[in-house]
Write a structure and sequence with these properties.
It is built from 7 helices and 5 strands, in the order βαβααβαβααβα. The protein is an alpha/beta fold. It has a single domain, classed as P-loop containing nucleotide triphosphate hydrolases (Rossmann fold). It has a 5-stranded parallel beta sheet, with helices on both faces. Helix 1 crosses helix 7 and helix 3 runs parallel beside helix 4. The protein is globular.
């Protein structure tokens, strides 16, 4: 089983990259925000900050969903902010084989992407609040810098991270590429 967790701030392109995994690498893609609780959706709508209790409920649901999906799919990729280290560790405690990839982009690019979204409930002001709550990851993870538009660059970056080591290409297991 291959389980990849794409995490990072809103607007970095987690969902876009998840869809590239699905389209070109035969992964089942699941958007973690599908499991947001009514309470969290209400907080987003009213632009109030999530409490730890709200996050605890949501991540318990999400981690159980990921566990269930991991038993149904050989290759699974999840996109979710995973804003706090505690929840990243909770997932690894339940599914130790999960691999995290932090998706990053320049702030101006991220904010431009957020401003262009029309069907997404999270506005730029609220995303900036989330940025202040995002905890720098200490878990072992890889990084994809998503500063360019288009699938070709993302496909190349995914190949360099996920595909087993071959001449000059490193696998996810290569400790020289791990951050944490």
């Amino acid at each position: 089983m291959s389980l990849i967790i794409l995490f990072g701030l809103p607007g970095t392109g987690k969902t876009f990259i998840g869809k590239v995994f699905e389209k070109y690498f035969d992964y089942y893609f699941y958007e973690g925000d599908r499991d947001l609780t009514r309470e969290i959706k209400s907080a987003i709508k009213t632009k109030t900050v999530f409490t730890d209790q709200m996050r605890n409920v949501f991540f318990k649901i999400l981690i159980n969903k990921i566990h269930d999906l991991s038993t149904q799919h050989k290759k699974l990729v999840i996109a979710q902010t995973f804003i706090k280290e505690k929840y990243r560790v909770d997932l690894l405690n339940k599914i130790p084989e999960a691999k995290f990839i932090l998706i990053e982009t320049k702030k101006d690019i991220r904010e431009k992407r957020l401003a262009e979204r029309v069907d997404y409930p999270l506005d730029l002001e609220y995303a900036r609040k989330m940025e202040g709550n995002f905890e720098k990851p200490k878990i072992i993870h890889k990084v994809i810098i998503n500063d360019q538009n288009g699938e070709e660059n993302i496909k190349r970056l995914i190949k360099n991270i996920v595909i087993p080591a071959k001449a000059g290409i490193h696998s996810f297991l290569d400790p020289r590429l791990d951050r944490g």
